[in-house]
Amino acid sequence: xxxxxxxxxxxxxxxxxxxxxxxxxxxxxxxxxxxxxxxxxxxxxxxxxxxxxxxxxxxxxxxxxxxxxxxxxxxxxxxxxxxxxxxxxxxxxxxxxxxxxxxxxxxxxxxxxxxxxxxxxxxxxxxxxxxxxxxxxxxxxxxxxxxxxxxxxxxxxxxxxxxxxxxxxxxxxxxxxxxxxxxxxxxxxxxxxxxxxxxxxxxxxxxxxxxxxxxxxxxxxxxxxxxxxxxxxxxxxxxxxxxxxxxxxxxxxxxxxxxxxxxxxxxxxxxxxxxxxxxxxxxxxxx
Length: 287
Ligand SMILES: *[C@@H]1O[C@H](CO)[C@@H](O)[C@H](O)[C@H]1NC(C)=O
Known about the structure:
Layout (H helix, E strand, L loop, with lengths): L1 H41 L12 H7 L15 E3 L4 H5 L8 E3 L8 H4 L2 H10 L3 H7 L4 E2 L8 H12 L8 E7 L2 H7 L19 E7 L13 E8 L2 E7 L10 E5 L4 E4 L4 E7 L4 E9 L1
Parallel strand pairs: 1-2
Antiparallel strand pairs: 2-9, 3-4, 4-5, 5-11, 6-9, 6-11, 7-8, 7-10
2-acetamido-2-deoxy-beta-D-glucopyranose binds next to loops.
């Protein structure tokens, strides 16, 4: 009797010890799952890296190109309104392409202007915040307008006729699903892109008067298409430094209704709007 009591006490203790260990293990697992989940939540697939690297470091560690994207090119490849089938063989070569009039039929060409976007962002008042949290960047270039919000606040003055002489250029990503859905009422996915092309759920707007974007490289995951909807613009492309001996810089003019495709990850690029013109373009990626 006494022995069984001891034994059961011992057993009990043993059990207590192992259940304690089990308890710790469960806690550890729960913590592990929790942190994995938090990490997964904070991981934004739109970002190229989990940890953002400063631009300077990115410039230093950029892989050396084979230069096939620029060799023997003295101008972009210019086509008409290519079909999906004909576009396919050019789609991933990183040669600069201009498809004349390929987006001429987009209603956005008539409808998009500064006020269209101002109204859109007034209608969806959380969109600015949503863009911010989704990493949808705003680019002020040399305009001195620090945010999209201040751009919309200032634009009526900037755009009024008396001071039309002020030149400005801005761009921003649209991530907010409501804003995107409304924008996409006025243009389709470019018809020439391959059916299986991966496209991000964000599209950029670039607009300005009499100015443009200074030379830079983009740190994005895919190739880029841009639909020139209003105004004419000159593109300047420069091969990356390791290809400067075998390739040359090029420049070309795009007109409203043209689609431009540039691998902005390997071509340094800048744009200048034709003096005295307002320019508006929609841009996104494919891969
Ligand atoms: C270009 O091609 C697309 C698809 O075939 C067509 O819908 C569009 O109307 C064409 N645009 C022009 C300007 O011909």
